[in-house]
Amino acid sequence: MPKWKLEVKPSYLPLLSVLLPALCATAAVAAPEAQSAAENELDIARVISVEEEAPHPLDPPVCEVVNVKMTYLDSSGQTRIHTYRKLAPACSKS
After folding, report:
1. Please, is 91 exposed, middle or buried when counting C-beta atoms within 10 Å of its C-beta (0-12, 13-18, 19+)?
2. What residue segments make up the domains of the chain, in order of their start?
3. Is the pTM of this model over 0.70?
4. Are 52 and 66 in contact (CB under 8 A)?
5. Is 93 helix (H, G, I), strand (E, B) or coil?
6. Is 94's pLDDT higher than 60?
7. Considering 2, 45, 72, 83, which has the largest number of Cβ atoms within 10 A of its Cβ?
8. Which residue in 92, 91, 69, 72 sits closest to 80, CA to CA?
């Protein structure tokens, strides 16, 4: 694992002392609040399809994170789409 070294020129220190707290405050305000377990549960009555991002057929299988789109019906009959990320099938092969 590479080790990162940050070198800051002394002339930048006054600017960083002003910008860094402002950036941290912005990130804290923009961060979403943690959701409770009940808010994270999906109301799935029936799964219609699950589509996984596929690599090009000529590319060798690679262990990576891929996007998945699940289309489903909820208990009220509404069609919903849920997207998430998962490890590619190549990750489970030993």
Report:
1. middle
2. 42-92
3. no
4. yes
5. coil
6. no
7. 72
8. 72
